[in-house]
Amino acid sequence: MRTDMLIGGEWTAGAGPVFPSYNPATGEVLAELREATEQDVDAAVRAAAAAFASPGWGGLLPAARARLLLRVADLLEEHTDELARLETQDQGQPLNVSAGFSVPNAVEHFRYYAGWVTKITGVTVPLSVPDVDYRSRREPVGVCGLITPWNFPLMILVWKLAPALACGNTVVIKPAEQTPLSTLRLAELIQEAGVPAGVVNVVTGGPDVGRALVRHPQVKKISFTGSTQVGREIGAECGRALKKVSLELGGKAPSIIAADADLGAVLQGNLLGGLLNSGQVCAAYTRFYVDARRHDEFAHQLATAAATLRLGDGLDPDTHLGPLVSAEQVEQADSYVALGKKEGAELLTGGERPGGELARGFFYPPTVFAGVRQDMRIAREEIFGPVLTVLPYEDPEELAVLANDSDYGLAAAIWSRDIGTANRLARQVKAGTVWINMMQGLDAGAAWGGMKASGIGREMGWEAITAYTEVKSIWTSLA
């Protein structure tokens, strides 16, 4: 397993201090890595800048670049089992998530954007200026800094990396310090695919490494997925430097369960939508709005179903929920549970750290609160753990107001047997993505991103092509 950094096609340990990556299921050290220094970051950015200017990448024909991306996709697919096990050991997600969702989604993205390489076009426009021909073209931005989170390390990296490379950019990747291993393995496969040296670089470490990357003058764009707090800092830095930036930040997704919904039919989708990856999903369904007359029924059904889910090591095929990524996340979930009880919410299940063998790892049980009020912090703040809140509503006309009464606007879910009601609510809810009668769905062709404090810009689909290109206008005199 590689634990060095990749800079300019060479694997280097760097001179910074050592930091560990833990297996969250056991608390044991899985690997030790080096914190990148400012000199390491500078070397990586300069290598990316040199590769961007080189004919080996910048002069590569679009069809050849597409073939490279397809080769990366093939290698990812060939190594699915290895990458899935690595992701599970380093992050904690069960194998049915890493092997059944994370790695296949990464493969899909490389293939999808390989298809776009030969189709990135400008436009011709009739101008009201005589004897002038006008056209535009899309050109790559240059060196892009990709800063990725720890909840889906490989998959979210590829959301950024595949379109960045498709557009002809070069990149420096800074994975989350908690989960760097699948990123390093992907970098090996990218080398094996024949991507030229310096096109993809990886530096490891914590927040200081990210700051150095954001502040480097040769980095032309930053793409960040993570907390809203850190996203604000990055956005401010990029604003001062006039760099392009895209931010996919926190969420507190509402799940609106209309009065006509079949509670039995929607229960499973809401349970899985709230507890996927142990709730460590920015679009997790975490606040459930239920008709007051059916609030108790739904809350108890949700709690009963949650209590049946088995906690365990993600490598165990019988595991439903794996560990949280770190002891810090366990402390955060536990502190919010204590806060919820103090605020007067009714704890129906969970809320205590497990003992026995699970005490060695970073486990927290699925936890359900009922009778939650809109003003409670557990209903307003992102917990990023397996803590679900059920809120009663009296008047269906207030549903959109309640759902929108949040700083966040990443995603929302609506459940109704009346398609008209569902689509009216979908128009009214301020969220980047709305799912109707389903748990979360993602596809390389569907735009993804947030409103309000959930971010700026979009990933996936054509929107990602626009995020990694600049538009140039070209005027030609015909006189």
Automatic annotation (TrEMBL):
Q: Which Gene3D superfamilies did the record assign?
A: Aldehyde Dehydrogenase, Chain A, domain 1, Aldehyde Dehydrogenase, Chain A, domain 2
Q: Which UniProt keywords apply?
A: Oxidoreductase
List, for all copies, the residue spans of the domain called Aldehyde dehydrogenase. Answer: 11-474
Q: Which residues form the active site?
A: 248
From which residue to which does any coiled coil extend?
none
Q: Does the keyword Oxidoreductase apply?
A: yes
Molecular function terms in GO for this entry?
A: oxidoreductase activity, acting on the aldehyde or oxo group of donors, NAD or NADP as acceptor
Taxonomy, superkingdom: Bacteria
Q: Tell me which PANTHER family the record gives.
A: ALDEHYDE DEHYDROGENASE-RELATED (PTHR11699)
Which family, according to UniProt? Belongs to the aldehyde dehydrogenase family.
Name recorded for this polypeptide = Betaine-aldehyde dehydrogenase
Q: What is the native source organism of this protein?
A: [Actinomadura] parvosata subsp. kistnae
